[in-house]
Amino acid sequence: MLSSAGGHPRTPGTVGELGEFGLIRELTSRITATPAVRLGPGDDAAVVSAPDRRVVASTDILLEGRHFRRDWSTAYDVGRKAAAQNLADIAAMGAVPTALLLGLVLPAELPATWPSELMDGVRDECQVAGAAVVGGDLVRGDTITVSITALGDLHGREPVTRAGARPGDVVAVTGWLGWSAAGHAVLARGFRSPRAFVEAHRRPEPPYHAGPAAAGLGATSLTDVSDGLIADLGHIAEASKVRIDLSSGAFDIPAQMHDIGQAVGVDPLQWVLTGGEDHALVATFPADRKLPARWRVIGEVLHPSALPRVTVNGAPWEKAGGWDHFGGDG
Is the confidence at residue 319, as pLDDT, over 80? Predict the structure, then answer.
């Protein structure tokens, strides 16, 4: 039989033909464990070690047609993306990802290869982050839905929340900004290149290890960029009761992103400031803290004012952007 993206033999037939328990056996056969997994799939619940005695938990849902399209992304891509956006939330607390639970709603007529390859993607992204799939659930339904719950361990540190930013702190980011939004613009026009930006939309690459590292560096607040930089920094500003001002000149925008912007009539700075789903990490640090080269300083934390909580070059960013699940874009 042909192999999937993860190198496992393809599963014949449809989800309905394979059946619930056949599909469970197929999916669990693709899982790998880590030392944190004391008891994996196969019982009523999994057991994951928590040396810190506290568990960091996050959950998210992806719905076909709203969060992914099968004509744009393979099942393997969707698996990588679903895992990445949840594991990034764990890293954004300054924690180390340990485990992941997967819930799937699948139509009976869906080829059985699709969830199998999705599982390969979830498993491989977990391996990048140092976590493992430990269980989940399957339900028959009309629309493909992927639900993920991710768990993590603080390794003795306090969680880095959104509420600790202080006036005088600097704002710094690590990871890509605007690449996923530029890739979405390319795909929306029916193209598949530049490939780097398309792949950034299909499979984000969160800097997982930078989350715990930021905690070690004394980050006062931390979050991942899922809804857009201004929107996510807005959460920090609101929780910390401060204003954050960004410098547009601090962003390094690749030439190819400028080319894409010119082709579709969009200022690429708009993607950088309001495009989500890159899952970069953005943090605030005391101004006297020496940061590694991977962290780029992009702004400062100020005392609150009558201006919006996040400004750019001292002024409100007038262009719409950012993601709201019930309000849409902007």
Answer: no
User: What would the mean pLDDT of 70-98 be, rounded to a whole number?
Assistant: 97
Peptide bond into 286 cis (omega under 30): no
For the segment 228-278, what is each residue's pLDDT rounded down to a tens digit?
999 999 999 999 999 999 999 999 999 999 999 999 999 999 999 999 999
DSSP string computed for 285-326: E-TTPPPPTT-EEEEEEE---SS-SEEETTB---S---EETT
C-alpha 30 chain-centroid distance:
22
Contact 205, 124 (CB under 8 A): no
User: Residues near 74 by Cβ (< 8 Å), separated by ≥ 6?
Assistant: 5, 117, 202
Structure tokens at 97: 């990802």
pTM of the model: 0.90
117 contact partners, CB below 8 Å, separation of at least 6 = 4, 5, 6, 74, 75, 76, 79
pLDDT > 90: what percent of the chain?
Answer: 84
What's the token pair of residue 309?
Answer: 């909580």
As beta bridge partners, residue 132 has 99
Q: Please state, in angstroms and rounded to a whole number, the distance separating the CA atoms of residues 6 and 101.
A: 19
How far apart (Å, rounded) are the C-alpha atoms in residues 232 and 296? 17
